[in-house]
Design a protein that fits this description.
- This protein is an alpha/beta fold.
- The chain contains eight helices and ten strands.
- The chain has one domain: Rossmann fold (3-Layer(aba) Sandwich).
- Helix 2 links the parallel strand 2 and strand 3.
- The two termini are 13 Å apart.
């Protein structure tokens, strides 16, 4: 079951996420970050007012577009201000987009293999129901086997992503989903999760929270 947390405003959600990341970064462990508009607002605030990072805190992005690092379409490129401000680029597991997608996924998986436990993971969800790099039900069902995959994305780009098998290592997953345009897909996630990739990928995970600024019916 997905636990819902309803925030009165987007700003309140952003502030809470920022505070959670500040606390998490100060402790040892592995942290999975998500791309997306709302998360990058949080990351840029952290970059503007850096916090201490534990030397044993490692970071990764849940998925990456196979675009050059210099491109604004590259998630790691957009995360660079945070990595530089926190001086933790050496603690960041980056997808090597200079490689072929298959080779990049294999190299990414080598790093993921070392992360037996991820204490916190942030994810987003698209209006089409995808999360991380899972755009199909088949991809969302990959709960055994490889920890990384390469995909042909609907937008014409190629990507590399963690798999649902890797999500099983994440102890706490927070879905950050904001904006009125996401109301319909949130309703689908909560009422018919088996019909969309995000719901399939997160099914049976013991600790998933939905953080949103929409006025949904709260959990009783």
């Amino acid at each position: 079951m997905i636990t819902k947390r309803i925030f009165e405003t987007t700003e309140a959600l952003i502030l809470e996420t920022e505070e959670l990341l500040r606390q998490t970064l100060g402790t040892p462990g592995n942290l999975m970050l998500s791309g997306g508009t709302t998360p990058y607002v949080v990351y840029n605030r952290l970059a503007a007012a850096p916090c201490p990072v534990h030397p044993l805190r490692n970071l990764l992005l849940s998925d990456e577009r196979m675009e050059p690092f210099s491109s604004e379409k590259n998630n790691a490129h957009n995360l660079l201000p945070l990595l530089q401000a926190l001086d933790c680029h050496g603690h960041f597991l980056q997808v090597d987009t200079k490689l072929s997608p298959r080779a990049a996924a294999a190299k990414f998986e080598e790093g993921l293999e070392r992360m037996q436990r991820v204490d916190l993971g942030l994810l987003g969800m698209g209006s089409d129901g995808h999360t991380a790099g899972f755009f199909t039900k088949q991809q969302a069902n990959l709960k055994e086997g490889p920890l990384a995959l390469h995909t042909d994305r609907p937008d014409g780009m190629q990507g590399v992503s963690v798999t649902p098998a890797f999500l099983k290592r994440v102890e706490r997953i927070i879905l950050l989903v904001t904006g009125e345009s996401k109301r319909e897909i949130i309703d689908t996630l909560l009422t018919a999760p088996q019909t969309i990739p995000a719901g399939i990928a997160l099914a049976n995970h013991p600790n998933v929270e939905l953080w949103t600024d929409l006025d949904l019916q709260p959990d009783s």
